[in-house]
Amino acid sequence: MINNHEIDYRILGEEMQCVEIELDPQETAIAESGSFMMMDQDIRMDTIFGDGSKQNESSSFLGKLMSAGKRILTGESLFMTAYTNIGNDKKKVTFASPYPGKIIALDLYRFNGKIVCQKDAFLCAAKGVSVGIEFQRKLGTGLFGGEGFIMQKLEGDGMAFVHAGGHILERELKHGEILKIDTGCIVAFTQEVDYDIEFVGGIKNTIFGGEGIFFAKLQGPGKVWIQSLPISRLASRIIAYGPMGRRKEEGSILGGLGNLLDGDRN
Fold it and tell me: What is the pTM of this model?
């Protein structure tokens, strides 16, 4: 049984993409604050508590508050915006990506009703898709997971759209196959994938590598989506080269010496 609104869509653009969603009469899409781009007449905007997936259920206010409050841990607002077509014809609403990259369309029905993604990846979805949090249960992952510790989970049987930076790679992991990856480069993975954190190892790697001392270990079976430019990496580079920043060579402790050798005295 399909519980989510069945929406049609088009992903437009190349490096700064947007997703155009076509709504039949009384269909609704939900989106994070700040993702709205434009919409046709006869589409009504409503601010809703949480993601709206349990608006009609007889759960207590405290239960709804705790469910929505978990979203704060992922850096999102307690509220989302619902866009409903109240007209008699098909109408369109468009949502834009927040920075250069790609929009990934995920049919949750094809992935057994659940996808785990980075905490800032969710863009918009059909109404009925539940947007919650996914805690990593292993102690090591919790202590050293960094960007990958608290992640979002998208549940339901409808369409959801996530955004990622740079170029997107898809990997289908076989049973037992392991992929080692920077935690910030993970966009999403299916629920069957086992997620853990592993120590890089080696004193030279730890002190001089500049890549951190832990990386993520994803073990199949399952599908993984990977981004080449995490927003945290882009932001750190902008800060490093800004007027208040101080340039570093790939995070190494030899960065100051490198700046002196290549003539950068700022």
Answer: 0.76
